[in-house]
Amino acid sequence: MLRFVDVWIVAMAGTWLLYFFIGPSVQYAGQIGLAVGVLTRWLLRRGQTRIAHWVFVLSLIATIVLAPLFVNGARTPLLCALPLAILLAAWLLGRPTMWALTALSAVVVMLYGAAESRWGWSAPLPLRPADVFAVSLATATLVTAIVAHTMLKSFVSSVQTEVELQDHLQMSETRLKALFSALQDAILLVDEQGRIDFANQYFCDLFQISETPESLTGRQAGSVIEQIRHRYAGPQSAVERIMELVRLGQPCLNEEVTMIDGRTLLRDFIPFDYGSGRLGRLWHHRDVSHLRQMQAQLEIANRQLEALSMTDGLTSLANRRSFDQALEREWARCQRQKRPLALILLDVDWFKLFNDRYGHLAGDACLRQVAAALRESVRRSTDLPARYGGEEFALISEVSSLQNAVVLAELIRQNVRARAIPHADGQEGLLTISLGVAVLTPAPELSARSLLKAADQALYRAKDGGRDRVESAPA
Questions:
Q1: Can you give the pTM of this predicted structure?
Q2: Residue 80, pLDDT score
């Protein structure tokens, strides 16, 4: 509209200038038209487009109706501009306003004509020469033609642009709906009045709706929610959550929804703007039940793998890594509780000679027998038997005194002897073990390695003392 008003201002300024060459009959038309144009342009620059439309049209209508009462010779030229004003109203304000202004102007003109012809009334007007009247008429006609041409050109351009935009929008919507239809995700578009704009086939399949997606278009979304609410694991809370999302109007992504048949859906809620002030809501659902099952299986596999990484493959006891972690953990716990912690280290006597005589397979079977005897000797669920390395084993135990720890170590030694594993190079022809016991109450100046060192020294004393025996570190 700004370009149109600029042309109008130039035309009115030209009309006003004719006053200096032709006569005063065009002066008022030019002045009024120029003032209306300048005011309209000022409103447009301030962003008051709607007000500018009304000011421009109503000012011209008022001029057309009132000016003939005061300016001689201006009656006919200004009445010639009446079609222009009506056309302008149609362009700027819409068809209903055009018909209203047309009817109002027609009534005024008919009343004015009836007043002159039937009742002999005429406004007292000063006389003007005929040539001035003719020039005034020609000038008004020229201005009308210029403005009408500019207006119609702008109108055609606007209509053409709008048609192109509509075609482009329709094509974009068609492509978008085709894309949504091909997606293996459930898509539901709802407008701001709560009516369904679009639903794809996967939405109907996911929520087990027997109707076609096309039949859902135009329906109230609330009726569809009531239709599928029993599919949710918690129908009431599920519907309340949907209403809350709509009320808040904020995006919510990757929200888990549990269905009554055990399926898990991920839901996205995305408010968006269609353009031209139209608002909408996108509901996007995807079935992740299979993914959740795979994740659960992966978690089980990870736990099993972690257990394997902490377990000795030969004896099924805790391995060295698990033993080290458990020793630090139990040391810290006993330190907090100010309770003693016992550690028993044991070593198979003359195991290298056993391997050399009977072979490695027999050696592996021997180690499994010792591990079984160690496991059978454990009395508390918190005790941890472990393979420390090679033919060495360990047991972490919480006991009340060194004496009790020695009794437990002696039980392990006897359990191994009771299995009567043949060993030609061992004492009495049987496989035996040597054990070192240490018991410490954690203190700031001590560490878990202090306990380990004390038990290891006791084990070496047992070996040096003749093997097949239990030695303890000083309390």
A1: 0.47
A2: 46
